[in-house]
């Protein structure tokens, strides 16, 4: 999925914003969940993006860990960019290794898409609005006002992560997929 998003996402206007066919997504999710072979290259890239966001939303406790939710939310309230980056790196060190590996690939994809935002209309802000709710959610439900404020803060964090991913994860993030 990520490889396809890395390949096609940068040249696809509205990637992650537009949804794939709900019926196709449901059918493919059932096939994937049953372990059946699925050739996503034959599907719309919007279906792949929708399936990927669904996958992220189904990670127990979220990829960024709901247990660290308050710490993630407070990162953007810290001083300058260097302090924010150091705080983010400390939080990333607290995540399970599998989460960190997946995050690096996710932000490698987002970085590639953001670099061609003139073409795809998906700058770091737009990407964050679309993907942030799939990366972290509060451990308990709350009022709509609190959830709205939370979403704004997480979107701001994801925008910052996308814009600074090379400094946070290392320059090699731009070559994780090799020469596809």
TrEMBL record:
Keyword line: GTPase activation, Phosphoprotein
Domain Rho-GAP, chain residue ranges per copy: 1-169
Molecular function terms from GO: GTPase activator activity
Pfam family, one: RhoGAP
SUPFAM superfamilies assigned to the protein according to its UniProt record, in alphabetical order: GTPase activation domain, GAP
Entry keyword annotation includes Membrane: no
Biological process according to GO: regulation of Rho protein signal transduction; signal transduction
Domain of life according to the entry: Eukaryota
Residues spanning the signal sequence: none
InterPro entries the UniProt entry points to: ARHGAP20-like_RhoGAP, Rho_GTPase_activation_prot, RhoGAP_dom
PANTHER family attached to this UniProt entry: RHO GTPASE-ACTIVATING PROTEIN 20 (PTHR23179:SF28), T-CELL ACTIVATION RHO GTPASE ACTIVATING PROTEIN-RELATED (PTHR23179)
Name this polypeptide is given: RHG20 protein
Taxonomic source organism: Herpetotheres cachinnans
Gene this protein is translated from: Arhgap20_1
